[in-house]
Amino acid sequence: MGFEITIRLPEWMDEYLEWGRPYATVEDRMRFAIELARQNTARGTGGPFGAAIFETETGALVAAGVNLVVPMRNSVLHAEIVAFMVGEQRLGSYTLAGDGRAAHELVTSCDPCAMCLGATLWSGVKRVICGADREDAGAIHFDEGPVFPESYAYLAERGIEIVRGIMRDEARQVLAAYARTRGTIYNG
Amino acid sequence: MGFEITIRLPEWMDEYLEWGRPYATVEDRMRFAIELARQNTARGTGGPFGAAIFETETGALVAAGVNLVVPMRNSVLHAEIVAFMVGEQRLGSYTLAGDGRAAHELVTSCDPCAMCLGATLWSGVKRVICGADREDAGAIHFDEGPVFPESYAYLAERGIEIVRGIMRDEARQVLAAYARTRGTIYNG
User: Fold this and answer.
1) B121 with A150: Cβ contact below 8 A
2) From the list A8, A143, A148, which residue is nearest B150 (CB)?
3) What is the ipTM metric for this complex?
4) Closest to B83 measured CA to CA, from B41, B43, B42, B129
5) Could you name the CATH architecture of B19-178?
6) pTM assigned to the model
C-alpha cells in the first residue's frame, strides 16, 4: 500500500478558496493572508499564521494555507509550506516557475522562518511579501530559526524579491490576540 | 470537505519500514539511509536522497523518508521532511521531543538543505547525522540554499548536535549514479 500522510485544510477555508479571484494590490493580498491567520486563531484550527500565493501580474488567487502544526500534529505545516503544497497540487507541478507560467508570489502574514524561507527557493515563487516580522513572532515566543541577512541576500541573488513590513501592525495584532488566548507556542 | 493533500510513500519502502528494528551503530543507521536513497534512484521513485529517524540510545527505527519531489509534484518533499512527517504521524505528536520521550536523531544521506535544516529545529530531534555534503550535492547541481556556519551554530546553541561526513563516499556514489541516469535536477 505505502505509508500515507493526509493533510486536510480546515473546512472553514473552503469559502476563502475562490481560485482565480483577483486581488489587485499588495495590500489586498496581505489583507487576505492576515484574515486567514485571524480566522485560524479565532476558530481554533491552528497557529496565528496565514499565507497565500497569487499570480503577481493579475493578482489571481492560486493557493492558500494556514498553520496546521498542532491540529495535524505535523511540525512542517507552517502556513507557507501548506500554501506551496496546495499551489503545486493545483498546478500539477513541483514548481510554480517555468513552462511559460505567470510569475507567482507568496504573501505571508509573518516573516518566513528558516524552513519556509528555504522552501520559498524550491517553490519557484519570484516574490515574497511579508507582514509581521521576526521580532513580532519572537515577542510571543515563536522562534524563526537561522535566518540571517545573508539568507535574504541568497534569495535575492537568485531573483527572488523580498518585501517586508506590509500591513505589519494589522498582522501583529493577530499574533497578540493568539498570545492572549494562550494558544500553544509549539516551538518556544 | 476541506482541500486535501495526500502524500504516499513508494510501495517498495514497505519492506524497509520495520518499526522498532534496532540499528546499533551510527554507520548502521547511515547505511540504511543511503540504501533508501539508492533504492529511490534505482526504482525511479524520486531524487537520490534518503533519511531516517532513530531513537538515539536504542537505535530503534522510528521513521523513514525519501525524496518525492518529482513523483508527488511537491517541492517540499525532501527526504528529511518526509521522515519528520512520518515520525510525527507515528508518534501522534508535532514534536519528537518532550513528554519524557527518548531522544531522537535524524540520519540523512546528504547535508540538509536550508528548508530541512530549519525543519530539524521544529521536529524535536536532538542530533543530525549527515552523509554526503553540500559540495557533493552541488557537484550534481542540487542547490542546498542559504545554509551558513551560523546556521549550524544556531542549532548547536539549541542543543542539536550535528555530525557530518559519515560514510560520505558511499553516500555520494548514490548522487553520482543519479546524475549518470540524468535524473531530474529539479532545483539546479
Assistant:
1) no
2) A148
3) 0.96
4) B129
5) 3-Layer(aba) Sandwich (3.40)
6) 0.96
